[in-house]
Amino acid sequence: MDEYLLARGLHIVSAIVLFGTGLGTAYQLFAACRSGDVPGIARVARQVVQADWLFTTPAAVVQPVTGLWLVRLSGYGFTEPWLVMSYLLYGLAGIAWLVVVTLQVDMERVAALAARSSTPLPEVFARHFRLWLRLGWVGFVSLAGVIALMVAKPALW
Ligand code: HEM
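A: This is the predicted complex of the input protein with protoporphyrin IX containing FE.
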């Protein structure tokens, strides 16, 4: 099998998993939180945390690895402007995602506790949700920026 095609195929499939799982699970948790159904929120939050371990985490590793492999195979310089900007945006998306993951784990814990004791969600859950939403947008806009750079490969400077 052609090494370049293998690297590029893995890179694009991983990008689909990274962006698609992120979007899908974010919508599921957003919709659950808007429902106010505490046991439902706890269940969806648990599934979102699982999806992050099963899909997003491996894809988040495969993406830069296949990306750097592609740089080597396709003869681009590692410091091409569109690549440097991609590294920076991917780093920003990564930092936002790491905080989002810790928020999701805590949101699941708080919701499960409230569901078990049949009590309303505490204020800390609403605070987590607001920060989770804002960081979610940072992550998505950054990744969308990377995809645009990957496709257009513009001469930025
Ligand atoms: C952060 C490290 C990354 C590096 C070093 C990297 C490197 C590359 C390289 C060198 C190519 C061009 C391959 C070619 O045309 O021969 C490419 C294509 C591509 N990359 Fe990345 N990439 C990275 C991250 C990402 C991320 C985070 C995404 C999306 C979530 C992504 C999505 C794509 C897509 C869709 C293409 C195909 C573009 C096209 O064929 O028009 N990449 N990448």
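The helical segments are 3-35, 38-74, 81-116, 123-152. The first helix runs from residue 3 to 35.
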